[in-house]
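Is this the right way to post structure tokens for a design question? Let me know if I should format differently. Anyway, here goes:
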């Protein structure tokens, strides 16, 4: 299980990818369950947010870093 604190900008960082969440969760610590196609955030064992997980974004980030290092 993974946890993330919601920032003052209403974002969470999940494995180096930023996701936006509802502003009502700012400052709260979420328990995250990662699935192949989505991320579910829980607050006190209740699901409060479900986000689509975009593997192509992670791949694009890795490719960008790799191309920057190669320069």
């Amino acid at each position: 299980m993974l946890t993330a604190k919601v920032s003052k900008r209403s974002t969470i960082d999940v494995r180096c990818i930023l996701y936006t969440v509802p502003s009502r969760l700012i400052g709260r610590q979420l328990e995250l369950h990662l699935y192949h196609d989505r991320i579910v955030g829980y607050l006190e064992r209740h699901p409060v947010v479900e986000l689509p997980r975009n593997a192509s974004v992670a791949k694009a980030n890795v490719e960008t870093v790799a191309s920057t290092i190669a320069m």
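Format looks fine. Someone answered above. Worth noting: The chain has a mean pLDDT of 84. Strands lie at 2-5, 11-14, 17-20, 29-34, 38-43, 46-52.
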